[in-house]
Specification:
491 residues, alpha/beta, UDP-N-acetylmuramoyl-L-alanine:D-glutamate ligase, ten-stranded mixed sheet, 16 helices, 17 strands, elongated
Length: 491
């Protein structure tokens, strides 16, 4: 976004003109939500151009009949911001001599610091923002970037940032605001479109991850299987999971694979689970001899296997030769990390591989990629391993070997429960098996689709336990299948 601004200024656009455009666009968003303004507004004006943006908003709200007060916690440094302040006071805007009451009912607009922050907030602002959140949670909106937050990394620059109920991000969404560290501070992330053409704004996909809200999962195209395909042509998936200690992990992974709509699901599970499996999942075929069949579209290995070294020695050679998709999760990742070759084993794979680590598993497998934010880590790991890597978190990040990335947004915190990772791994493997059966490459798009559907199921399920989410996931998948069938019939 800084590059876009500089390009505009180099073209001859005055800084004042861009400031007006930004302030008017933010004002329009606020005036469309009059209920937020019913108790008046206090604009916290920073020393730079972000403060100037806030003063344009203050002026326009004042002219629209909203009661507006100004507070300048720091000396104004930019001449243009000082001019807007002088004009606002001339119009009758009240400038507070003391800091605003943190328990006051008026909405606060945080326009202290914007793009490119690099230093912690002054202690006075740290204390004020902390008291505001304690006394009036949700009654603050940040303009462009919450003050005290790094717009690239999403991390707090010190001990405290402004805690916003919404952040109005100008032009492009700032990279760091999409990542996990920013989630407690950003609130609802809103893109404020400035109306410039793509020729002016440039290609953000070259430098920004794609945000995928889980609400868009229902628009996901189902793997394009032929309408005449029989069960073995609709995806064949093997789940290698569970142990005497973790039998439930195998059950949940199998439920995820079944929810995907995969035509044939097979299981390699511990003896403790084998005897009763047919009673709860009668459709699942059990692997008897411990040998991976040749004709498979996807294999999932890892959920609840326990003793990573033991099972890795038993299965790694077979997994290496899987021609279809290999999904490694949980102890599958831990077994690989503990092996002599480590992640370099992945370079020997001929088929595609999806990895689903959480933060601790990621560090075990890719210690050399454990720098920077989650997005940078996932991209680095995907590039070196040649795999699609899902780094799980509140905002899960997905990257492929080309460096393309997706950040999942709109997720429910209820999804942070034991068992939901097993469900996701099974669903991803079943979904990927159908992509392979349709003779398509199981890459970033299909992985992201499975991830988003799982996130949407967690959001919509009646409860947060894994079984309820599995049922919801099955329903969502059926809706995707039905939509594809309807489109086919219409054609």
């Amino acid at each position: 976004m800084a590059a876009v601004e500089q390009r505009l200024f180099d073209s001859g656009m005055p800084v004042a003109a861009l400031m007006e455009k930004v302030g008017l666009a933010m004002t329009a968003w606020l005036l469309a939500r009059r209920d937020l303004l019913r108790h008046g507004v206090v604009v916290l004006v920073g020393p730079g151009h972000n403060g100037g943006d806030g003063l344009v908003v203050a002026r326009e709200l004042h002219l629209a009949g909203v009661e507006v007060s100004l507070w300048c916690p720091l000396p104004i440094r930019k001449p243009l911001t000082a001019e807007h302040l002088r004009h606002g006071e001339w119009l009758g805007l009240r400038r507070l001599a003391q800091e605003p009451d943190p328990g006051g009912a008026a909405l606060w607009l945080d326009a202290v610091f914007g793009l490119g922050q690099s230093r912690p907030l002054p202690q006075s602002l740290v204390d004020l923002f902390r008291r505001r959140e304690q006394m009036r949670p949700g009654a603050l909106i940040s303009l462009d970037v919450p003050s005290g937050l790094c717009s690239d990394q999403g991390t707090v620059l010190g001990e405290q940032a402004a805690c916003a109920s919404a952040t109005l991000s100008v032009g492009w969404l700032k990279r760091g605001l999409c990542l996990d560290p920013a989630r407690p501070w950003v609130g609802a992330l809103v893109r404020i479109d400035l109306g410039f053409s793509p020729a002016v704004m440039g290609d953000a996909t070259a430098v920004l991850p794609r945000r995928l809200p889980v609400e868009e999962a229902t628009t996901t195209p189902f793997p394009p299987l032929p309408p005449t395909a029989m069960k073995y042509e609709r995806g064949r998936c093997l789940v290698v999971a569970g142990s005497d200690r973790y039998p439930g992990a195998a059950y949940l992974a199998l439920r995820g694979a079944m929810a995907s709509g995969c035509g044939c699901v097979q299981a390699a599970v511990p003896p403790r689970l084998q005897s009763g499996l047919w009673q709860v999942l009668p459709e699942v075929m059990q692997l008897e001899d411990g040998l991976i069949p040749d004709r498979l579209d996807a294999v999932l290995a890892g959920p609840g296997l326990g003793d990573p070294s033991h099972w890795w020695n038993q299965w790694s050679e077979q997994l290496l030769s899987v021609a279809g998709l290999l999904v490694l999760d949980a102890d599958g990742i831990n077994g690989l990390a503990a092996s002599p070759e480590g992640w370099r084993w992945l370079l020997q794979r001929q088929g595609p591989t999806w990895l689903t680590p959480h933060a601790a598993e990621f560090v075990r497998l890719f210690p050399h990629c454990d720098e920077g934010d989650a997005l940078g880590k996932a991209i680095a790991a995907a590039r070196c391993s040649g795999c699609c890597v899902l780094l799980k978190g509140a905002h899960s990040v997905l990257a492929d070997p080309s460096g393309a990335a997706v950040v999942l947004t709109g997720t429910s915190p209820r999804a942070a429960r034991t068992g939901l990772g097993d469900l996701l791994a099974g669903f991803a493997a079943g979904w990927g098996a159908q992509v392979v059966a349709a003779q398509h490459q199981p890459g970033l798009e299909s992985f992201a689709a499975a991830m988003a559907l799982h996130g949407l199921a967690a959001q919509r399920a009646r409860s947060s336990d894994a079984s309820a989410i599995a049922d919801c996931l099955k329903t969502l998948t059926a809706q995707c299948q039905k939509k594809q069938t309807t489109m086919f019939n219409e054609v």
